[in-house]
Fold this sequence. Notes:
The chain is of the alpha+beta class.
Amino acid sequence: MRFITLVTLLLFGSVAKASDPQQLLQQAADNIIELLEQNKQQLAVDETLAPAIVRENLLPLVDTLGLGKRLLTRKVWPTLSGSQQQRFTDAFVDHLINTYANGLANYDGHKFHFIKTNYSSSGKTAWVYSELISKQQERFSIIYTLKLMDHYPDWRVVDVSIEGIKILQNYREQLKSVDVSEGFDALLAKIETKTESTP
């Protein structure tokens, strides 16, 4: 499951703008699979390569500006200063990178099949339905949620559902019990402990 989550997250980056969200993800999938194939052996032995690949390919299409606001409650997020909000976002991004980089070494001929795209009535939210197919023909359902927002020039991924589990929503539920009154350093520490169990 860790590998599946990692690769779906990697699909958020590495491509130029595209007006069709399904096309955007398909292009990313092709690039990521090629990258994994080219570095398969090196990924298993070079501990610095996987985090570098994740950082380079994860961030460009993720709604990083709204990440902290989505993860913390509406009551908590406004109580943080601008610098604290940035530190929280940076810490969570680092946590994601470090958590999922290990899964790169598990790549073994996986393929992506994109099925269809549904849009909201406003046309500003899209759900891209896909499958990850393993070398053994195991199929895993993946649904990407993308949004068009004023502060971005194109679609940004805001969540991913893997076999019915929404990844960012899962993190958000774990962080609901964080008590900011304990101090901001304690909040950052809890990011690491409360997200350890996420698939």
